[in-house]
UniProtKB/TrEMBL annotation:
Protein name: Uncharacterized protein
Domain of life: Eukaryota
UniProt keyword annotations, A-Z: Membrane, Transmembrane, Transmembrane helix, Transport
Main location: membrane
Presence of keyword tRNA-binding: no
Annotated compartments: Membrane
One GO CC term, this protein: membrane
Species classification: Eukaryota, Sar, Alveolata, Ciliophora, Intramacronucleata
Biological source species: Paramecium sonneborni
Length: 428
């Protein structure tokens, strides 16, 4: 008889929940199908529905993320995760019966996304409570599984909706930017894809939530010195300092700004991947496989960089990764216009290093600010990602019609370069 330890049980539960949440991250690779599907019955449907609701959702998602741990402290971590996964599944069922694209976005993306924001950090904190010396490793595992699940859902949706690899033949012009979408022959299959993917994702999250538990820390662990490497980082923090004081430090502001530039670029490309790439490479299954391979490599990178985060000084690792990320980001539009093969190489490199930057954030905050403060400050640090989420959606509406996607991505790559330069000042 196999006996599963309580920490292993929590890890399995976290993996299942995270795998279910991955469906949310396929939006940028499948929203062209959803738009095409609802445009069949609404010929005047505006392309802004792919971006404007996302921008409006950013504020409540940011608030939910920042206060998620406080809510979990009040009602209980396990209870919150189970309630959220159940409500997400109900929201998905309502999305199946949506009559308009806006209704679909509200239930499929809005409420499910709100749930994701509320449970992401409580889930991570539950897991960290069982692996106090291996936070980077288990964070890497969780993000890795998230990536593999994303690739599974992208393939599932793509091959149900477009099994014959039909080209996107219809178009709409917004300013100087042209958007392609699919005819009824492809779009009609979208409902089946939503149904199958949603049921699988919801079942995974619900099952995983039943296995989640939080280990109660000993008093000595709660009072553990808040700075494990503060002397290296030149940060003076005592165990009783409020989070507000941490937020005011130069180091935290630089980290926040740096991650904003990364998320700003990553989210803009992620939310518009097929919309953008189909203009240059009108081969749906090919660009799906490129993204799938990138997701697999990114998932492996999560494991590797997660382990590195336990062994290398965070600020040193972040600085080097930002430099690499800046060059790769600037090359995305350049490579796509020069050569299909060059773009594929650049995109795969992007998938690796962007995931590396993301996965080291949590362990890095623990390394700089100590375990308890680092865990508590993570939702606030994640605000940079949600701010990037909002600005990204607005940039598609305001900047892309002028600069096109090409100019927008080059501009964002330069911002990441400035962020890389600023990280040199963290230790000063």
């Amino acid at each position: 008889m196999i006996i599963i330890k309580i920490n292993q049980k929590c890890l399995i539960g976290a993996v299942l929940v995270k795998a279910g949440q991955a469906l949310l991250m396929t939006w940028g690779k499948s929203n062209v199908y959803y738009y095409s599907y609802f445009k069949m019955n609404d010929p005047n449907l505006s392309i802004t529905y792919n971006t404007l609701p996302i921008a409006l959702m950013g504020i409540p998602l940011a608030v939910a993320s920042v206060y998620s741990l406080k809510i979990a402290d009040k009602i209980g971590y396990e209870k919150l995760i189970r309630i959220i996964t159940l409500l997400q599944f109900i929201s998905f069922l309502l999305a199946l019966h949506a009559d308009s694209y806006l209704e679909f976005i509200i239930f499929y993306l809005g409420f499910i996304g709100l749930g994701y924001a509320l449970l992401a950090f409580p889930l991570l904190k539950c897991l960290w409570s069982h692996f106090s010396e291996e936070e980077g490793m288990v964070t890497g595992i969780l993000f890795g599984v998230f990536g593999f699940a994303t690739f599974f859902f992208v393939l599932l949706v793509t091959y149900i909706v477009n099994p014959n690899n039909e080209e996107a033949t219809l178009s709409i012009q917004v300013g100087s930017q042209q958007y392609l979408y699919f005819s009824d022959v492809v779009a009609v299959n979208t409902y089946q894809a939503i149904k199958y993917a949603g049921f699988i994702a919801g079942s995974l999250s619900l099952a995983g939530s039943l296995l989640i538990n939080q280990r109660k820390l000993e008093v000595a662990e709660e009072q553990e010195l808040q700075v494990l490497t503060s002397e290296i980082q030149n940060i003076k923090i005592t165990p009783n300092d409020p989070l507000l004081q941490v937020v005011k430090t130069k180091q935290f502001k630089i980290i926040l700004g740096s991650y904003f530039t990364v998320f700003f670029f990553d989210i803009t490309l992620g939310l518009n991947y097929k919309t953008y790439v189909l203009q240059k490479i009108n081969n749906d299954q090919l660009i799906t496989w490129v993204d799938t391979l990138g997701t697999i490599l990114g998932s492996i990178a999560n494991f590797v960089f997660g382990k590195m985060a336990d062994q290398i000084t965070f600020t040193v690792l972040l600085h080097k990764l930002l430099i690499i990320m800046s060059v790769i980001a600037i090359m995305i539009p350049i490579s796509l216009n020069l050569s299909k093969d060059l773009f594929i190489i650049d995109y795969l490199l992007l998938s690796i290093f962007s995931k590396g930057i993301t996965v080291i954030l949590g362990p890095g905050l623990l390394q700089i600010f100590g375990k308890k403060t680092g865990a508590d400050i993570l939702p606030i640090a994640n605000f940079s990602g949600l701010l990037g989420f909002i600005i990204s959606a607005l940039s598609v509406l305001l900047i892309v019609p002028i600069l096109k996607f090409d100019g927008t991505f080059i501009f964002q790559g330069l911002l990441i370069g400035l962020a890389a330069y600023s990280t040199k000042k963290i230790n000063q």
